[in-house]
Amino acid sequence: MAVYTWEGRTRQGTTKRGVMEAIGEAAVMAQLRAQMITPISVKAKPKDMFADIQLFKAGPNTRDLVIFTRQFATMIDAGLPLVQCLSIQGDQQPKAGFKEVILGVKSDVEQGSTFADALGKYPRVFSDLYVNLVRAGEVGGILDTILSRLAQYMEKADALRRKVKGAMVYPATIVVVSVGVITLLLVKVIPVFKKMFEEMGGALPAPTQMVVDLSAFMQEWILVILAGTFATVFGFFYARRRFRDFRYRTDAIFLKMPVFGPLLRKVAVARFSRTLGTMISSGVPILEALDICARTAGNLVIEAALVKTRAAISEGRTIAEPLEASGVFPGMVVQMIAVGEATGAMDQMLSKIADFYDDEVDSAVSALTALLEPLMMVFLGGTVGGILLAMYLPIFKIAEAVK
Predict the structure, then answer these.
(1) Tell me: the pLDDT tens digits for 212-244?
(2) How many CB atoms lie under 10 A from the CB of residue 225?
(3) What is the topology classification, in CATH, of domain 50-126?
(4) End-to-end C-alpha distance for the chain, whole angstroms
(5) N or C, which terminus of the chain has less Cβ within 10 Å?
(6) Is domain 1-47 annotated with CATH 3.30.1380?
């Protein structure tokens, strides 16, 4: 299929222009006539020299998707046809990559696809959760309500993601700065002191000699150390992507870490509760909803627990029993889900759990930042101060000898 630009005249006499993907010019003209538009010109769109380079096609971020979803819900609620909504959204979209996706969805809908099926052709933009909720909205005739609920879900999920990133970025930045400062001192500053001490002669104090030896080691092996560090980090992330067993083991370790483990578990519970609650309230079947929750869990240990839960439910068991048996989810969460299951208010109970754990994540991030900030400062100040003190010990020794 190729992309064509077209110009045509409506029955009211106004001129319209657009872009359409079709197998040929004749197919474009047929589509236009079906829309009561008389074709004036149809031309193949010139191929973009950067068409295959994603760097030059800015795709949508979460904020773009939220805006798109909210505006779409408003237009559907106002009674506008689906194709017209897509056309308006595509025309006003500033990002070339997202605009191309919207116009592709519009073309598929015009050719007879459902809205959900058309969105499903772009999995990098629209997730399984997004597509399945839209499909449920189309079947139930409440697409505007589902889209509004989906936009609210994405906003809260994005806020949760930002909190976790903020908690992770701060200590990582401090560690990188600390290592950089210490390396700079050992490679650039200490050699100046070493040269001065050699000119003075005499034995150096033990701390000073240790720092000087460490500096000499760093100067000789700095490139090997940097290459080894890069290779280790690259190998770790490559192994996590390539080997599922390795990723499972590291995910289990992450959940058991003393400081970050509880935070990651709370984030996972909040994400699971929000996702499952949104899908159940939108009419998605429980087994399909659990399958999507497992794929979007972000942690293979939790994913495995949800897969076992789904299998147990398909055998006739309740959702609370296998969740409790997994040992991954806190007892309070399991009990609240059991109550929601018994009272028929599962979606409301899951929403309350998600709100509660959102607040828990807030508190955990604040406590983590308050704990790490003084520890990092003490580490950086103590290390740099210790190196400088070791360098000044020979000077103090000379001054004492002079007295």
Answers:
(1) 888 888 888 888 988 998 999 999 999 998 888
(2) 13
(3) Receptor-associated Protein (1.20.81)
(4) 91
(5) C
(6) no
